[in-house]
Amino acid sequence: MKDVFSVKLKRRRFAGQKKGGTLLGITIFKCLNKEENKLTDCAIHLNNLSEDHCQSWFRRLKEILNGFQNRPKSLKVFVNPSSHKREATHVYYEKVAPLFKLADIKTDVTVTEYEGHALSVLKECELQAFDGVVCVGGDGSVSEVAHGLLLRAQIDAGKDTDYVSKPVRAPVPLGVIPAGTTNILAHTLYGIKHAVTATLHIVMGHIQAVDVCTFSTPSKLLRFGFSAMFGFGARTLALAEKHRWMPSSQRKDFAFIKTLADLKPEECELSFLPLQIPQEDCQEKDRKKKEKTKKGSKDQWQKIQGHFLNVSIMAIPCLCSMAPRGLAPNTRLNNGSMALIVVQNTSRTEFIKHLKRYTSVENQFNFPFVETYTVQEVKVQPRLKSGPDAKENTRLNAASAEGNHPWNIDGDLMKEASEVHIRVHPQLIDLYGVNTDDLESSQATCNCI
Fold it and tell me: What would you measure as the largest C-alpha separation in the chain, in angstroms?
């Protein structure tokens, strides 16, 4: 019964007849595992013309199904109609809603109208009326809803939301229905971009605890999130956002090529606190190749200064079609650590070689200009250029919101001039899904770059 999610009485009805009809038996709806991590639903028909027998079996099966505690009965749903090719509304009403209805899940749907709409709704709505929250959209939409859920949890707990050193957990799980371009969180949870698979994970109540980061300045909390990029990844997103009038795929391709053509390093100081590893595990883990996991005490902060093409801080593996192994394949969903990936200044040719490695099974970090660390905290302090490049830097800063540096946080653009402090908080939120390590295959085909 663990794979069954619904049971219905089967009746024969005439055209236009909505109630009653000749009883034919019971139909059981089951979740099936398919190839490539896909889930699908199937119907099993049990024929029996006895009203008493069918009603008795129907009641008993419903009792069993109601006994699965993690399966939601009521969901708050956010649909972003502007995601990707504006397909989120179609995806929800054609693929997701019918399965929710079949599983007798009540829904309250909000179709978002502007950026920050979901956040404002989450701050005010009665979350205790729901067993979970679902977002239908891309990475930016999911990031906003996850941030809203966790921010609401801090408000309800009476915490100061300007500075959250020890945040409380989100009150309900979050479900992710992929309807964007990259869909990193969906790929990481399900191993595939497939709306029906994502929906069935929610219906079946598959819950996975996931680590979350806080992104803060010295004076305020900026965001809850799962991953961030500073440098090339953020500049690419900032340029794409300036060309919103272009179709999604063209906009991102244009921004990628343009940023690559104008490749410039960021001068900054990185401070990080390495992950504390139990003594018995130190010799076994992360000795291979370039992975530099280091032991540390609470006071053993390390610093790197220099010019960096890109800095990535990721608490989850960040799988996607463009990176089937993940942008940070050495981290996990809930191991209490972040991957810090630092790409030093190098030639455009070498940087492109590094980027191409993400699309293959080769180690994308096996370059002399790439360093990786497993950390608990990171501080990124941008530096203003001096000397011959000062005028150029002034021009760039004027064009970049008065010196604010772009950040790509879960596909969402943020700009900040001061130091950004990133902390990982273990298992801060529950997501509907599974750990891709437990799936038979988490590989995806890729035809990019």
Answer: 89
Q: Dihedral sign, CA of 204, 435, 234, 148? A: positive
Which pTM value belongs to this model?
0.85
The helix or strand, by DSSP H or E, that contains position 66, with its residue range, turns out to be helix 51-66
Select from 349, 342, 345 the least CA-distant residue to 389: 345
Per-residue b/e over 140-167, b at no fewer than 16 CB within 10 Å?
A: bbbbbbbbbbbbbbbeeeebeeeebeeb
What the block records as the tokens of 258 is 């343009």
Q: Give me the mean pLDDT over the 271-280 stretch.
A: 76
3-state SS assignment for residue 57 = helix
Which residues, at least 6 apart from 188, have a Cβ–Cβ distance to it below 8 Å? 316, 317, 318, 319, 326, 333, 436
Per-residue pLDDT at 284 exceeds 90: no
Q: What is the pLDDT of residues 43-54, one digit of tens each?
A: 999 998 888 888
| pLDDT, tens only, 102-137 | 999 999 999 999 989 999 999 999 999 999 999 999
Q: How far apart are CA 231 and CA 341, in angstroms?
A: 12
Q: Give 320's DSSP letter.
A: B
Two tokens, residue 100: 């929710």
Residue 122, number of CB atoms within 10 A of its CB: 23
> What six digits make up the tokens of 86?
């504006």
Q: Which residue, among 418, 420, 347, has the nearest Cα to 384 in the 3D structure?
A: 418
Beta strands in 217-318 (DSSP E): 221-225, 227-231, 266-274, 302-314
Confidence of residue 69 (pLDDT cuts 50, 70, 90): confident
Evaluate if residue 293 carries a pLDDT over 80. Answer: no
**41 vs 182, residue with greater confidence:** 41
Nearest Cα neighbor of 141 from 179, 198, 97 is: 179
Over residues 376-385, the pLDDT tens digits come to 999 999 986 5
| Rg of the chain taking only CA atoms, in angstroms | 24
**Strand runs labelled E in 157-242:** 174-178, 207-216, 221-225, 227-231
Concatenate the DSSP letters of all residues of 390-444 into one string.
Answer: HHHHHHHHHHTTTTPEEEEETTEEEEESS-EEEEEEEEEEEEES--GGGSS----
Answer yes or no: are the C-beta atoms of 194 and 38 closer than 8 Å. Answer: yes
Please tell me whether residue 150 adopts helix, strand or coil conformation: helix
Backbone angles phi, psi at 169, to 5 degrees: -70, 155
Could you tell me the two tokens for 6? Answer: 């619904």
Two tokens at 248? Answer: 């999604």
Number of neighbouring beta carbons within 10 Å of residue 128: 9
